[in-house]
Amino acid sequence: MNIAGEMGIVLALLGAACAVLFAGIGSAIGVGIAGQAASGVVTEDPSKFAKVLVIQLLPGTQGLYGLLVGFITLSKIGILGGELADISVTTGLLILAACLPIAIVGLLSAISQGKTAVAAIGIVAKKPDQFGKAMLFPAMVETYAILALLVSFLAVNGIPV
Amino acid sequence: MSKTKYTYAVARIRALEVSLFSDMVIEQLLACKTAEQGLQFVREKGWGDASADMDMDAVLKCEEEKAWQVIRETAPDMSVFDVLSYPKLYHNLKAAIKAVCTETKDLNIFYDDCSISGEEMMQIIENREFQRLPDHMAAAAEEAFETLLHTGDGQLCDICVDKAALEAIREAGKKSKEPMIENYADTTVAIADIKTAVRAQKTGKSADFMRSAMAECGSISVERLIRAALAGADEIARYLEETSYAGGAEALKESPSAFERWCDNRMTETLKAQKYEIFSVGPLLGYLLARENEIKTVRIILTGKQNGFSDDAIRERIREMYV
Questions:
Q1: Distance from CA of A41 to the nearest CA of B (A)
Q2: Which of B129, B144, B176 is the last residue of a domain?
Q3: Cys-Cys with A56: which of A34, A132, B3, B307 at CB 3.0–4.6 Å?
Q4: Cβ of A37 and B9 within 8 Å?
């Protein structure tokens, strides 16, 4: 087994790892910060638990998108099936590049969404009847994570192995 | 992390802001016929604790304690609130110096909710262990104690402690590195200076006296204020019009209570923007001051009703609410 020959699969695996890692880190930060705000509200008013929980979970989706792209990549390169595909360095690089949108956008959008969720939790704290509107603001950030997921998903699927 | 360390605290404050009194609630309180009814009204709003027979002072003290309790529980760093606790700390110092010099012992004259309790302060002054006091206090404490002991002049002692308190507040504001707190500290010092100038002008005090009572601050010039005070009340108003306290000049002409009200309203106005902050210490400060303002207003209304003031006389002194 020579390293140059195996480089393709290493790069492809790196892509899958990046997608899961960065999107996951972003979501953990986002959900964490929103969780702090949610705890603050529930300390004073436990009846708002369900509402703030929904908002807290919004930045968690990027992690799932990263997982999805990572999963597809693993199955594409045969790691999941147990039979490693023969992947050239070029294909490996292509897969790595395909994973980048959800890795980078996932990281940054989850953090931004977390901060917006904190502000939205503030709305629920003061005006619980405005829950629907409050949820829309962090949901807007989701758009860009979905766009990145779409591109990563199409790209990984479209690369012939 | 540093940018988000107030997330929990601010969210908790947001939930608590709902129970702050609005202008409408204050109107309802004002509509109560007697002080007893007013007290009952605030009790129904959740003021005081579970014990049935609380008088007005106990209810208001309980509310003050509740507000600080929330801040103590939530704030990751209490040192930024020094600007708010220093007046009480310096009050304890002043009270202890006077109690020791007059050889009386009454712990009721002290505030309990600050870093040095009345009893400890009494011990420090009695044993002249000024080095046990925080750095910003030690020198002023010794000077005030010696002054009172040798001259027996309570006013000189007060001036010394009050000036040190103002300087400490300004320093604490600067040290906090939070623009909101710095601004609050600076305004507090400026307003204290203006009040001193007005009173000194009325009682015909000298420039040296004013200089020893006033502390430097960023928003007004002490020297110009002293010169204005020496020239007369109109000069003070004219000088204020050049500063950011222009609205105060108008209130000052009306009455001293109108000026105090204007000062509080101006602070509330500045703080209102903090209702939309989510990651800074501002909302905590806003909440704490809003509660103090609220408690002050309820006290004004209840004592006004107790003493048979007319609604108009009370209304003149009512502060604007934060929410």
A1: 5
A2: B176
A3: A34
A4: no
